[in-house]
Each structure stands twice: as C-alpha cells, then as structure tokens.
Design a protein that fits this description.
single chain, 369 residues, alpha/beta, Lyase, Ornithine Decarboxylase, Chain A, domain 1, TIM Barrel, 2 domains, 9-stranded mixed beta sheet, 6-stranded parallel beta sheet, 10 helices, 28% helix, 24% strand
C-alpha cells in the first residue's frame, strides 16, 4: 500500500502530489445520471458493476440515482466480500466459481448477503449444491451462457436448458435465471454495435423462452454493459445490465460513448524535458496501468504517449509548437482501461471545481481472488 500524502480539503488540485488518481465529481454525477435516466424509463434495470472503480462511495451514488436493481455486480468473491462489509447486501458475482476454497467463501458470504453467481457446468452446480447445503445456506445461481468470443459459459439453447434443470433440482441452489458476458463490443459503427448486441441478446432471449417452456421460471436475464446498455436494456425480456465503466470512463470508450464525460484521470508531473518534443513525467505503468494500451493525453493538442516505463511516462509533443510546458507542470492522462488503472491506487482524490472535496478509499482494489 502506498504511503498517503494528503492535503487539506479545499486544496487546489494542482497542489496535490503526483501521480494521483483524480475524479471530477461533477462529471461523475453527470455520468451516473445519464445512465440512471435511461434505466428509470427502461423495462430493464441497471446493476452497477463496481469492479471498474472499487469504490463504495461511488457505488452508493450509483444506487441512489435510481433505475437499478438495488444491488451491485462484482467480478470476484474478494470484491464481493469487501462491498458486503460496506453494507451492500445484494451482490451478483458475474463469474463462475469452481475451486472448493472459493465455494466455501461464497457460502460464508451468503450467510450475510444475497449472493448470485454464475454456473456453467453440472459439476460446478453439484459442488456448489453440496457446499451450500452443508453450510445451511441458499445461493442464488444463474446459468452462465456463452454468446460471444472465447469466454466461459454453456452454449445457448438446449445445453443451457439442461443445466437449468440440474440447478433447479439441486439443494442449496435457488435457480435465478441466465447471464452472459459478451465482452465489450467496441465497434466504431453504430449499426455494427446494434447488430452484434442484438444477436447476443436474441440468443439469450431464445434461451430464456426454451427454459420457461421446460417449466422453469426465469427471474433474471443479465446481459450488456457500458458499450451497449441502451440497446439491450430496451429489449423486452432482459431484466438487468451490469454496466460499470460509464461512471469514470476511459480512453477506449471516449469516442464510442460520447454521452459520458471523462471523470477519472491520472494527474502526472513534468519531471524532465531533455530535448524539444520529448516530455518525461512521473506517470508510468505503476500509476496508470498499461496492459490495455497507452493512455490518452488531455489538454495538449497532438500529444501522445510514446511509452511507459515502471515509474515514468514518455510523451511526444510537436517540437515546433510552444505548449508552455515547464518542469513541475501537470499533465493529465486518461487511462486506456479505467479498471486496470484504479487497481493500482489505494484512494481517489475527489475534486469539485478544481479543489479537493473528499478522499475516497478503494478497499476492493487488488481483490482479484
């Protein structure tokens, strides 16, 4: 854990130590309201996926905005355990759980919270059933259906129906419905996005119909995310969309989801300018994350990251233009993937009007187990 160097509330953002994860509260609130306003009028509900920000403070804002299921989604049991300690009582783990240790943790969590989890095989269903029954708990479970890419999941249609039958008859399991994670559909064409989103959703809707024709009730059909929430969220039969990146946003969504603003950025400091056009900052992979690609740069036209080392960022600017940069100046980086960036920080500096308003802990960061 990093050693915090905090400034008093009211401090101008440019006086904060760098590199720093900074969130503009006004943009965050607008993003949350944009998503919530759609779901308040939609047949489906939003289930905020909190793994992208790991912040109970932000999650409370998302639920308070309305249009939600009343619960949250996480990617791991570890994240679910953390958010349960912060008072979140309805948690959907959008993953499969197979290892005996994790199943025991899941059953322990179910003692104090409503927990839903994905299942994609009869063997996993049997293991969950045995552990839940032995622990005296009931775990909500959904059939995890594969619709796109190389992810986990049982195939749509009859394979999903057969697994639903197994889960419906299993002790310790309350069969809740169906889920898929189709992955972020990053299309530059709206027509392509809509076609692929509807293809995945229709496979789920057809599977829902098949399960219900088998005499099994389907309460939950979960699909979608920030990339397509307004497409799948408007389809009858879809009950919830687990979207998360919309709250803080990132570089990969910047041009594809223009209704949302960039609320989360990394503030870095110019530490060296060894030659014209070459700017070095203190924002490297350890502060920004770089697994998903280089970050974008705000406020400097034409600037681009030419590489990140562990502790430094190399930024290329036009050597023929006077950008007014000096040692100590701040440069704002927009992470390519906000989840990977948040995961390397212990807290968020929450800013309103250019001044520090709050410091939010990130207790779920690093809980990937």
């Amino acid at each position: 854990m990093e050693r915090p160097i905090f400034k008093p509330i009211g401090t101008p953002e440019v006086e904060l130590d760098t590199p720093a994860l900074v969130v503009d509260i006004e943009k965050l609130d607008r993003n949350i309201e944009t998503a919530a306003s759609f779901f308040r009028e939609s047949p489906a509900n939003l289930r905020p996926h909190v793994s992208g920000h790991g912040s109970p403070a932000i999650a409370h804002k998302q639920l308070s905005a309305g249009g939600t299921t009343g619960g949250i989604a996480t990617s791991t049991i570890g994240q679910a355990e953390v958010f349960a300690r912060y008072g979140f009582g309805d948690i959907f783990i959008t993953n499969v759980v197979a290892a005996p240790l994790k199943i025991r943790r899941l059953c322990a969590l179910a003692q104090s919270a409503k927990v839903t989890v994905g299942v994609d095989s009869p063997a996993a269903a049997a293991a969950l059933s045995q552990a839940a029954a032995s622990s005296g708990v009931t775990v909500n479970a959904v059939v995890y259906v594969h619709t796109r890419g190389s992810g986990v999941g049982v195939e749509p249609g009859e394979p999903a129906v057969e697994l639903a039958r197994v889960m419906e008859d299993a002790d310790g399991i309350s069969f809740a419905g169906l889920m898929t994670y189709e992955g972020a559909i990053l299309c530059d064409s709206r027509d392509e996005l809509e076609a692929e989103s509807r293809r995945c959703a229709q496979a789920m809707l057809d599977t829902r119909e098949a399960v219900e024709n088998a005499g099994i009730s389907v309460e939950v059909l979960s699909i979608g995310g920030t990339h397509n929430y307004e497409i799948v969220g408007g389809m009858d039969g879809v009950t919830e969309a687990p979207a998360g990146s919309y709250a803080l946003m990132d570089e990969k969504y910047r041009t594809r989801r223009p209704q949302f603003g960039i609320a989360g950025r990394i503030m870095t400091c110019v530490t060296s300018m060894p030659e014209p056009g070459n700017v070095i900052t203190d924002g490297g992979r350890k502060a920004i994350g770089g697994d998903a690609g280089d970050p974008g740069i705000d406020g400097i036209p034409g600037a681009k990251v030419r590489g990140l080392s562990a502790e430094h960022g190399g930024i290329e600017v036009d050597p023929n233009v006077d950008h007014g940069l000096s040692l100590g100046d701040r440069i704002w980086c927009v992470p390519r993937d906000i989840a990977g960036s948040v995961n390397v920080h212990d807290y968020i500096f929450a800013i309103r009007g250019g001044r520090l308003e709050a410091i939010w802990d990130l207790p779920a960061r690093g809980h990937y187990r």
